[in-house]
Design a protein that fits this description.
The protein is α+β, with helices and mostly antiparallel strands. It has a domain at about 35-90 and about 460-720: Rossmann fold (3-Layer(aba) Sandwich), CATH 3.40.50. The chain is built from 15 helices and 39 strands. The N and C termini lie far apart (about 55 Å).
Length: about 725
């Protein structure tokens, strides 16, 4: 059983990325139009651009369409655009991709999109067939056909499937988003009949989460009233209820209710090896602090772990716990921030008292625990080791826990893409900047890791090299970063360079293979840089916590230090240096634009936060005050005023022409951030480019074709600004 409770992934400001078919879905809650209207009305007198927060307001969308048309005319008219679009489209729709999936009862399940299946297919094939070059796929759901039949722009957001040990059929709750929003409709689907269940469970659109208790019972966290009245101040579910087959959703019985001030309350459930079900709720008091409650007894039972701790998988009777704070356990001793721990679950279930807590793994100073995945007969620990990846086998014993390494193909990023305690086969993905993705099959019975599938090389790497350097931030901290470039470049500052980072929410940026960057940037002669600035999780929770709230300037200082180090080394120069980041990384871009406009010549600002004095009033923003600080607290507001890009815009400054990219349907980070910042540029006759996808959600693209278009726009803009004899002041305006 995988009793895995992941909170940050549900509500974090994530980067622009997609997800494979999964049982774990993102759940956040969209405010009602009434709530949006109320907050706009409250601040209309202090913010002249507040009208741009009316997501689908007529005046706001007229402004959006006008700048979309203007910017698209400029970018698509550039000689490189069609070439970039053709390349991006070929890559996005190329069928020579690894069909990542998960195993259920000997079948591999996969979600697939291509040029024909724009919205995608949910499909499956036997494991033996999956091992072949051309598997024989069986379609479960055709989302293009479903969207056409129902007149919706359905975007598949995953399936939460369950087959109890004593049952023969598998039922799923399929999540469907209209246009790519985080908010989804959930419908019950029978894997055996390949049909939606007639009169089955159906939950209306909300950013919701469900967990199976049995085939006739779901544990649900959602917007119970449909009007936002049952949500927390952050706009997330505030209670978990038990929903029985045949009941209307509003008849579900409440098992646990949190506080209005909580970030949110979500359900979880898992089946133990003997068939017992345990289930409960996680109450996120703040973004980084939570309480875990078991709800299958007479009264809610708190799991006695510290507030900054994450429950992980279950293995051989042990429950894993990862710490994000130091923990003194009475009578047992002290554990450190970042430690991986375990305790025997049955003694706790019997007594309600915390049993002996064991240290499983303690990371070194340049390491971090990513997580534990459990297959039948193996617990696999993924760690960062100086930003690269390692995977270790874990085993309990009389003398404590032991680790043994799984030999990987080389140095790069390895991730456990699938593991389940009912399967002796696990899938491991491996890639590097110059190493195409490969899918490896790990057999827990033999301990062998063998190649299963791999991508062909998508760009020429013969003349490329990867180097890892360190910049020194103003407080003396060493900040690692990777540079990918041609091996014969002259260190004369003339190499067009794209610098990328994220810097938040303990999200690690690690080496990965990008055919898009390879073809649209590296093959053109550019250099690509990935900075491992603080705020991420590359070196564990402390690396993240060093940049929280009032310490956030450290993150921005780190990024600036990397930019300056690149110039000092002669890799590039300001006219040739561009930067890009999305979501929380979009905030980073906004800060870089306002704090150091002299250092960059191109800035791609993707689905960003930019108004840091109002972010907590927009969509899921209130849940992020633990990361950024609370604008309603005087001391924290004072700091936010110093970094908020929207409030630090200088009408006298000489800004490089930025490119703002967002989505109308983004119900996680409000499109008003990008709109209002762009309006400041418009009001002062400063050059800027703007593209808002009317669909697309937080990735600013709802399907592969839209992603290809967005990518082509961004890289055409970057090439226009950074290549050429005199890059500074030249290119797209």
């Amino acid at each position: 059983m995988r009793l895995t409770i992941v909170i940050a992934g549900l509500i974090a400001v994530a980067g622009c990325g997609g997800s494979n078919e999964s049982t774990d879905q993102e759940t956040s809650v969209n405010p009602t139009e009434q709530n949006v209207a109320e907050t706009v009305s409250q601040d209309a007198g202090t913010d002249p651009h507040i009208w741009l927060e009316e997501v689908e307001g007529e005046e706001a969308l007229t402004w959006v369409r006008g700048h979309n048309e203007r910017s698209l005319d400029k970018i698509t008219g550039h000689p490189l655009f069609e070439q970039n679009l053709d390349k991006a489209m070929d890559l996005a729709t190329d069928e020579e991709r690894i069909p990542y999936g998960r195993i259920r009862d000997g079948m591999v399940y996969n979600f697939w999109q291509d040029e024909t299946n724009v919205r995608g297919l949910w499909r499956r094939t036997p494991l033996e067939s999956y091992r072949q070059d051309d598997p024989d796929w069986e379609t479960l759901l055709d989302f293009d056909a479903l969207a056409s039949e129902e007149g919706k722009n359905w975007v598949y957001k995953g399936a939460n499937c369950f087959r109890p040990l004593k049952a023969e059929k598998t039922l799923c709750m399929v999540s469907l988003s209209n246009g790519g929003k985080d908010a989804v409709v959930q419908r019950e689907f029978d894997l055996d009949t390949k049909q939606f269940v007639e009169d089955g469970f159906v939950a209306p659109e909300a950013k919701q989460r469900m967990a199976w208790v049995d085939h006739d019972t779901l544990l649900v966290g959602t917007d119970w009233g449909g009007d936002g009245s049952t949500l927390t101040e952050s706009g997330y579910p505030s209670s978990v209820r038990l929903w029985k087959r045949g009941q209307a959703l509003d008849q579900a019985r409440e098992l646990f209710a949190g506080q209005k001030s909580d970030v949110g309350v979500w359900p979880f459930a898992g089946e133990l090896p003997d068939g017992r079900m345990i289930y409960g709720a996680v109450e996120a008091d703040t973004f980084f602090t939570s309480k875990y409650w078991l709800l299958h007894g007479d009264e809610p039972l708190a799991i006695p772990v510290p507030p900054k701790a994450s429950l992980g998988a279950y293995y051989k009777g042990y429950q894993f716990v990862t710490l994000q704070q130091d923990w003194e356990v009475p009578g047992q001793g002290a554990f450190k921030n970042g430690d991986l721990l375990a305790f025997a679950l049955d003694p706790f279930l019997e007594s309600g008292e915390l049993p002996t807590v064991e240290l499983v793994f303690r990371a070194g100073p340049r390491q971090a625990v990513n997580g534990v995945a459990v297959a039948d007969g193996a617990a696999m620990l993924s760690i960062n080791d100086n930003v690269a990846s390692r995977i270790l086998m874990l085993e309990p014993g009389d003398n404590g826990w032991t680790t043994s390494p799984i030999d990987l193909p080389g140095t790069g990023q390895a991730s456990i893409s699938f593991a389940d305690d009912r399967s002796t086969i696990a899938f491991v993905n491996f890639e590097g900047f110059l190493t195409p993705d490969s899918l490896l099959e790990f057999d827990t019975a033999s301990g062998e890791l063998t190649p299963l599938k791999s991508l062909p090389a998508r760009f020429d790497v013969a003349d490329l090299q990867v180097q890892q350097f360190e910049a020194t931030s103003p407080d003396g901290t060493r900040i690692p970063y990777f540079v990918v470039h041609r091996s014969d470049i002259e260190l004369n500052g003339e190499t067009p360079t794209l610098l990328y980072a994220y810097g938040g929410f303990e999200v690690s940026m690690r080496p990965s293979y990008s055919a898009t960057i390879g073809q649209l940037w590296l093959e053109r002669g550019g250099a690509y840089v990935l900075a491992n600035i603080r705020g991420g999780g590359e070196f564990g929770p402390s690396w993240h916590q060093a940049g929280l709230k009032g310490n956030r300037q450290r993150i921005y200082d780190d990024f600036i230090a990397v930019g300056e180090d690149l110039i000092q080394r002669g890799v590039t120069s300001t006219p040739r240096l561009g930067i890009m980041g999305g979501s929380n990384g979009g905030l980073l871009m906004g800060v870089m634009l306002t704090q150091r406009p002299d250092l960059w010549n191109a800035v791609v600002v993707q689905v960003p936060l930019l108004d840091m004095l109002r972010y907590h009033k927009l969509l899921a923003g209130a849940s992020w005050v633990d990361e950024y600080g609370d604008p309603d607290v005087a001391e924290e507001r004072a700091f936010l005023e110093t970094i908020s890009p929207y409030h630090n815009f200088d009408d006298q400054a000489d800004y490089p022409t930025p490119f703002f990219v967002t989505s109308t349907k983004d119900d996680r980070v409000h499109p008003g951030h990008a709109r209002k910042m762009a309006k400041l540029f418009e009001d002062t006759d400063k050059s800027f480019l703007y593209y808002e996808n009317i669909d697309g959600g937080h990735s600013a693209a709802a399907n592969q074709k839209e992603r290809a278009k967005r990518t082509a726009l961004e890289f055409t803009y970057l090439a226009s600004r950074l290549f050429g004899e005199k890059a500074k002041g030249q290119g797209m305006q």
